[in-house]
Structure prediction request, 291 residues.
Amino acid sequence: MNDFFDLNCFLLDPERQLPKEASKDHVRTWLEYKIDVLKDNEGRKVKDPDASKDARKFYEKIWKDFLEESGLSLRPEASSLSKNPEQYVQGDWMCSVATTFGKGLSVFVNGDKELKNLFRNKFPKKKLRGGVGGYNTYAEILIDDMKSDEQKFQKFWGDEVVQNFIRSAYTFANLIIVPYGFNAARDTLGEDGTEDYWDLTLKKFYQDKEPLTSGGYDLATPFRKLLKKNQEQGDPLFLSPWIDEQGNPILLPDSPRENKANWRSAMAEMTTRIDCRRELMAQYIDQLQNE
Prediction:
């Protein structure tokens, strides 16, 4: 482990006592964290780890030179003067656990009449997306199932592909910087958007040069500029697992958007790409330490 960051630290929180290898404990801990996000916690809302102080230190250390050479700045915290995407970037996760997890759970539940009825009976007045809704509906169901003697979802949360993905995706290796407001804007596009998948994001807004605006700002152009600068400067964003040498997006096999039944293979590929970025980051950090 390097002296700067533990690139394997789950949820970017070294205080969490979890096994080093992927396990159901990582799935349970992630679900518990998502439940905490929904709570007020006496006025102290739980922040997503990508907006934490440790994450900010990571962005500042890893991408300091890239930002300076590109004429960009990390968005000041809670500042009303930091919304210009031409000038400011912010950190975010690349591969979304919630999106991918929800797709897989939907496939799992909708293939079992008993599980479908379980969700319908628990939320009779709600129209649940994909039959399961979001983490606000499924998190407690799955946590209770893990504690039960009659586990109905064990084949889902016990799947090593699911566990490996969650274990890897909530580490520094899944973080990226993007123009301020970019991810929030693309998430509002629904079925016409990218559904939070990075290969589709790259194809839509980088390769195909489609527009993306929000709050009067053009967000797609700063995104393309950011990626062009990344190529010119030798890939400091560690995007080689996602963009080939010709600058084309490397699409996921069996994209969940095109065929939800293939979500498992797409998830395994995302895990591989996150792990590859971790190795690239570790090499760069070793260089920093030796300077």
Notes: Residues 10-290 form one domain. The beta strands are 73-74, 88-93, 175-179, 213-214, 217-218. The chain is about 50% helix and 5% strand.
